[in-house]
Amino acid sequence: FRNVLNIGGTLMSMLPTPHIGAKDNEIAKTVLMPGDPLRAKFIAENYLKDVKCFNTVRNMLGFTGTYNGVKVSVMGGGMGMPSVGIYTYELFNFYNVENIIRIGTAGAISDEVDVRNLVVGVGACTNSNYAHQYNLPGMFCPIADYNLLKLAEESAEKVGVKAVFGNILSSDTFYDDNDESLKSWKKMGVLAVEMEAAALYMNAARAGKKALCILTISDCPFKGKALSAEERQSGFSEMMEVSLNMVEKI
Q1: CA atoms within a 13 Å half-sphere pointing along the CA-CB vector of 213
Q2: Handedness of CA 82, 54, 148, 1 (dihedral sign)
Q3: Does residue 52 register a pLDDT over 60?
Q4: Which residues form the catalytic set?
């Protein structure tokens, strides 16, 4: 199954895949996944050693290197669930990746979080119909892997960064025609909004793999706050420290 793709009933050998140009064994068991491929490049160049680029297809850059001697990959996932759904599916099912940690930014919904805080998605609510493909007789609840959650908590404490754990919202819409939609999620205790985690969690569940989403709060719509470009970079560095400390223990 890992090396075969079923397209229209036709089985095809799948390394490289249609969207990832890597050969076998060029991608680590653990992948850090920002949305922006240039952010993946930045991580590879500033945090990893012995870096090799494994993907340039559609400019969705991917790199493998080492962090404190541990092999790790970093690759962009794009914006939205259709994009991250494609890349994480191929990583889990064709490249034998075991862990994907999404690292990105989010907008705060709950008053419990503020700019620069880290939010870790225990669960991912969504307005997407992504789960429809599984033909389930009810509603599926996309959740993170518990062991990765524990490692994230330990790592945040070690780094000294405030991290809030709870439900997030993975939205299909960045510009929502309903101006009141975030208020509806807020009353249910949802912490923040982003656009990818639910698809990542569902792909991981279906493949029997592990996934986690760690987010830096970049803006608080209800408070009228937003980080400057310089503050975003600092907050991103804290998130990277937490994520890389996890990689050493996975």
Answers
A1: 36
A2: positive
A3: yes
A4: 219
What span, in angstroms and rounded, lies between the C-alpha atoms of 107 and 115? 9
**Parallel, antiparallel, or unpaired for β 118-126 and 99-108?**
unpaired
Alpha carbons within 13 angstroms on the beta-carbon side of residue 104 total 30
- CA-to-CA distance for 229 and 118, rounded, in angstroms? 17
SS3 47: helix
**What is the pLDDT of the chain when averaged over all its residues?**
93
Confidence of residue 11 (pLDDT cuts 50, 70, 90): very low
Number of residues written out for the chain: 250
Number of other CB atoms surrounding residue 196 within 10 Å: 29
Judged against a pLDDT cut of 60, whether residue 7 lies above it is answered with no
* Mean pLDDT in residue range 101-127: 96
- Cβ neighbours of residue 248 under 8 Å, at least 6 residues apart? 67, 68, 70
User: H-type helices in the chain, by residue range?
Assistant: 37-47, 81-94, 146-159, 181-186, 197-207, 229-247
Dig out the tokens for 129 from the structure: 């119909």
> CA 37, CA 108: separation in Å to the nearest integer?
24
> 200-209 burial string, b = 16+ CB within 10 Å, else e?
bbbbbbebeb
Q: Which residue has the tokens 């929502």?
A: 176
